[in-house]
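Q: I have 138 residues here and want to know how they pack in 3D. Can you give me a structure?
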Amino acid sequence: MAADNPGKGEERRRFLAGLLRVAVISGIAAPLAAFLKFHLRKPPRLVTVAKRLRPGGFILEPDFIIIDSSSGPVALSRRCTHLGCRLNFNEEKRELVCPCHHSRFSAAGKRIAGPARRNLARFPLRRLGDGKGFVVEI
């Protein structure tokens, strides 16, 4: 039978070699693409907060908190640096507290205690022209 069609075995080898090339290239290209995508930065998102900040007060938003400090208003992330849980603000102690694993952060964003090892991210903040709010760059 092989003598009737000698090119069939060669054709099968070429097909398998091509399939192997595709598998190898995919195995290299997929992790490389994921690696390159990881380093691309998203454009910042601007969030307008049309609320006044009273002296010593705070404004709680879903992604960040604006706190009035002695050096002026500060915008801090509400994502815990441990596993990303949303932080709550304790007004009495002026601390951000993680409800999941009890990491604690000062009103300046410094880590106080808990499994978190890094301070909170600070976001650029500017006042609106009329003084009745802020624009936060997340």
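Q: Anything worth noting?
A: The chain has two domains: 1-40, 46-137. The chain has a mean pLDDT of 89.
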